[in-house]
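User: Good morning. I'm curious how NAP would be positioned relative to this chain. Could you predict the structure with it bound?
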Amino acid sequence: MLKVGLIGCGMIGKEHAKRIKYKIQGADLVAVCDVFEKSARAAAELVGGDVKVYTDADQMIHDPDVDAVVVTTPGNFHKSPVLSAIAAGKPVFTEKPLTTTAADCKEIVDAEMASGKHLVQVGFMRRYDRGYNQVREMIRSGGFGKPMILKCTHRAESVADDYSTEMAVTDTAIHEINVLPWLIGDHEEWDEVQVMFPRQTKNAHEGLRDPQLMMMKTKSGVICMVEVNVNCGFGYDINCEVVCEDGVINLPCPSFPTTRKNFEVATAIEKNWILRFIDSYDVELQDWVDHVAQGTTGGSSAWDGYTAAVTADALVRSQTTGAVEKVACGETPEFYR
Ligand code: NAP
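Assistant: Good morning! Here's the predicted structure, ligand included:
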């Protein structure tokens, strides 16, 4: 039984705490940590109270009762607990992004390589989503020819007041940055990227530029357009259309009944990410626990987290320059091949 300690008892932290305690086979939640003791205690209550409560991440990581660590603090607070888990030789699953800058991700990559062990898995759960896997298989079958254009939307009903223009890249589009090359079987990193700002919505808080259109091109010439629109007001709406040489594939959305009433045909849209990707999180954390039992990691590696951050840095630069920015990640180290 893998004894897990979780750091960061906010929105997704509480979800993962319940998941590890009640759903995942071969793992148990033994400790929770949050800088805010009340949040840690609330998370402990949620899972029946029988877990240790910490306010200091390092102390929890070094607790001999903790075999492995889950990090669900905000992205700019991932680096320190991930480095600390590597130093302690403990497997660590960190929510996306690995960190919010490429320089910080590189420190993690270097520390993991120096440890000689694969310890870090990054929570890019879309690679575990059934719909994305179905689309990937269709592309791999060859029956649709080569992909040429991807048209994606990443829409949310609304965001908190501390959500910034940069976070549209580092927290939101980071999912598309990670999943799209994997989806189309393009293992090279992105080549060039650009952000364009259309007319701004009246629904965004002051200082936030929303929506944003992100253009990303792979080295093989596939162009992806991602609409990030986080104040759309109507739900959590994730779409991906893959235009191939011999046909078009659309990412399936979760199914809801279609209703007919008041001269209208209607189908619901998910309210938020918790529900939209609920199965993917379950499969992802089970896969992490199964890999840890084998002494390895699954899903996205620290290197994947690093290349996503290099791409994100280029998009953030383009938010200011408006120019097409090059993405340069360097050679994939042998350790991550
Ligand atoms: P959140 O609600 O703000 O929760 C973060 C929690 O971590 C808060 O309780 C915060 O405490 C605590 N915290 C901050 N610094 C800490 C530290 N140094 N040590 C211990 N606890 C600390 O954030 P969230 O929405 O759950 O997001 C957390 C992470 O998950 C982010 O990286 C986000 O991108 C990711 N996420 C991923 C998905 C996905 O689809 N994969 C979905 C949602 C979120 P205070 O509130 O007291 O500061």
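The longest strand covers residues 147-155. The pocket of NAP is lined by residues 7-13, 33-36, 39, 57, 72-75, 77, 95-96, 123, 125, 171, 273, 277 (CB under 6 Å).
Let me know if you'd like a different ligand tried.
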